[in-house]
Amino acid sequence: AVLAACSRYFNAMFSGGLKESKDAEVNFHDSLHPEVLELLLDYAYSARVLINEENAESLLEAGDMLQFQDIRDASADFLEKNLYPGNCLNMLLLSDAHCCEQLLELSWRMALANFTSLCKSEDFLRLPKDKLLELVESEELEVEDETLVYEAVMGWIRYDLPRRHEVLPELLRNVRLALLPESYLRKQVACEKLVTSHKLGEEIVADAVRCKMKILQNDGLVTGCCARPRKVSQALLLLGGQTFMCDKIYMLDHKTSEIIPRADIPSPRKECSACAIGCKVYITGGKGSENGASRDVWVYDTLHDEWAKAAPMLVARFGHGSAELDHCLYVVGGHTAMSGAFPASPSVSLKQVEHYDPQLDKWSLVAPLREGVSNAAVVGAKMKLFVFGGTSANQNKLPKVQCFDPCQNRWTVPTSCPQPWRYTAAAVVGNHIMVIGGDTEFSASSAYRFHSDTYQWSKFGDVTAKRISCRAVTSGNRLYVVGGYCGAQRCKTLDCYDPSSDTWSSITTVPYSLIPTAFVSTWKYLSA
Fold first, then answer.
1. Are strands 425-429 and 432-436 parallel, antiparallel or unpaired?
2. Do 355 and 431 sit in the same domain of this protein?
3. Taking the CB of residue 144, how many other CB atoms lie within 10 A of it?
4. BTB domain location, by residue (predicted)?
5. Which of 151, 187, 284, 497 has the most CB within a 10 Å radius?
6. Per-residue pLDDT averaged across 423-434, rounded?
7. Class of residue 136 by CB neighbours under 10 A (exposed 0-12, middle 13-18, buried 19+)
8. What is residue 528's predicted lDDT score, i.e. its pLDDT?
9. Of the candidates 311, 328, 431, 446, the residue with the CA atom closest to the CA atom of residue 381
10. CB count in 10 Å sphere of residue 376
11. Is residue 179 within 8 Å of 145, Cβ to Cβ?
């Protein structure tokens, strides 16, 4: 009776006159692991179950099979909170098989956004054809170069060549082949044996070559999937101004390395912070022309090149950090103006941390920092918030890593920084957080890699110049660094680090008239 009350599956089994209702025991054979079934039985009698990383997937599958709806939903919720690029393809298949719509949507979005890093993984190579086809044909697949999509498809075909070769034309038809470089299309794709050995595949590539020549010769309107750009791609946005007052926003064109001006910031400010969530960039706080700390939040929409105001923060602040976590915005630390002081002077470094929900346009306070900081690097990774170094309340460089777990609403100090620092920059690349430059005791040209699972530090290729107060973002599994100072000299180059080769290169030169205040990676939508 207890089982029947918790599960429609058992209710049907025991009250529907089925054979099992008369048996002394029910054999599930190998469809359920005994430990998982034991957890479900315990839940039926106690209404409690501990979901963790080891059992969440099995509990979701069993909860769906045996129609323990609460278990299925709670397991899906746990997996949503622990979703990251390394497991999103597995979660995509799991959620699709068990109709978990929210987990499916989140996994799908993450797979589209991280295709560049996922396409060489074992999980990608094992994807069923229908899921690979969905990814490849998606208008929102995030890639800087369509060559990557073609090579990913060919890698997937070769992984199980005897069974997969026959579906090559279906996949090639959804690769934007006419967007590949002309020499690559002619010399690599058109001469590929797997393509030439397949009559239909050869025809698809020949058609793409004809489209490519039309494009190059401006020979009339070119239509068809093979020549249509995808509707979404990642964009780097640089915020700054001619002085420390931030009043301009620029978009960096990946292909030409041009820095293109966009709509001016409506309310100029200095020492503000910027963070991207989806297609929107949130600029929080800062000091206005009268030097007072601000609660204002301005939102830039990359789709319409427009600015709008959001709900103000609860605490006016400047010199703070901000980061995205689970589609929400967090602002951390900084200073606020001392009450009763004239002229306004900064307070000690703040402990207050605020959470903003874009859907509700609402701010709330969460647990405060263990130690107040300003000028710290703030990053969201693996469903946690990490704060590296900063200026402490007594104006010293802080040598600590502070970590916030939103599920527990609690801050911890899991480890120390390799050296005391502030004015550093940080960004996530894969499982690592890259921390670059800063005002340190030693060399500001050092670059450190922090593993977000093990909390271990290691050094990687030094940046091309010492940089204090630089800015960093990740795009396409590469790290981009801009701005900052080397002594009294401004760093004018925008540099890129490629982890696959462990090398740095300079991409372009930032105009000397632009002092970068913030650097974010967001989405831009393209017309069809």
1. antiparallel
2. yes
3. 15
4. 1-53
5. 284
6. 89
7. buried
8. 38
9. 431
10. 30
11. no
Mean pLDDT, the chain, whole residue set? 85
Phi, psi of 293 (to 5 degrees): -65, 145
| Token digits of residue 445 | 């040209």
Same domain, 354 and 494: yes
227, 258, 279 - which closes a domain: 227
**The token pair that represents 506 in the structure block:** 């300079």
This model's pTM is above 0.85: no
User: Residue 225's closest CA among 174, 156, 287?
Assistant: 174
* 23-37, 151-165, 171-185: range with highest mean pLDDT: 151-165
Regarding whether 282 and 169 lie in a shared domain, the answer is no
Contacts of 452 by beta carbon, 8 Å cutoff, 6+ apart? 381, 382, 384, 386, 428, 431, 432, 433
295 secondary structure, DSSP code: -
Phi first, then psi: give them for residue 78, nearest 5 degrees: -60, -45
Tell whether 214 and 269 lie within a shared domain.
Answer: no
- Cα–Cα distance, 153 to 455 (Å, whole number): 35
Give the model confidence (pLDDT) of 381-394 as tens digits. 888 999 999 999 88
